[in-house]
Amino acid sequence: MLRQAGGVLVPRGGHAVVAHYGSPAGELAACVSAVGLADRSELTKLVLEGPPAQLQHLAQRLTGHEVAPGGAVLSGDAWWCAERPDRMLVVCDPRLGDRLQAVLAARVARRSAVHLADSSADLAALALVGRHASALLAELGVYGTSGNPRHVPPLTAHAVTGADVLWLLESDDKALALTAVDQAPAVWHRIEHAGQRFGLCAVGHEALDRYALIRRIASPL
To answer: What pLDDT, in 10s, does the model give residues 26-47?
Structure first.
């Protein structure tokens, strides 16, 4: 589907990713002034399941924070997302993924009731990035009937075209949709259709990287 859309695929961290769709500068402009839709399925997605108390203890030891159900914490470039009291999803760049998985495997080995699985190949990840990302999310119904992002948790479930989707609301201008790989094309097309009125553009990693740099410069630590 990405190739048919004009995506130029390149290797990156052992994965094939879309560098751009023909105009990196135009795609960056879309992120700055409108909204970009990107495939981020190369992200590592680790699933931890087990007794809630043990999961909370593990998350707190590694992140320094308690992650309540529906909550999401960014720690060490990885998002720790509590989908349910007994299930936690950890999402990160694949360059960090192998190391983090090794750390988690060692920790889980000491807790026989906690199970670790790599769901990277089973879950697709679609990113919405840019000025109008929040407006598009409201249009899709992710913020519920109020349309207010402050009224939903950082990790919220909202189906798209009948597909189960977990939405990680990273910031006012960035969100990640996690869904089963076989449902991803339908979810992509629905987002694409809803995003037309907001100037949505498919964007590749070159635009994402440049937009992230612009955001860091605009909001220095």
So the answer is: 999 999 999 999 999 999 999 9
Neighbours of 63 (CB within 10 A): 16
Beta-strand relationship, 35-39 and 115-118: unpaired
Which residues, 6 or more positions from 214, have their beta carbon under 8 angstroms from its beta carbon?
A: 32
Pairing of strands 200-202, 35-39: parallel
CA 148/CA 189 separation, integer angstroms:
24
At 113 the three-state DSSP class reads: coil
CB 91, CB 125: distance < 8 Å? yes
* Alpha helices by DSSP H, the chain: 24-33, 52-63, 94-108, 133-140, 184-194, 205-218
Intervals of the chain under pLDDT 70:
219-221
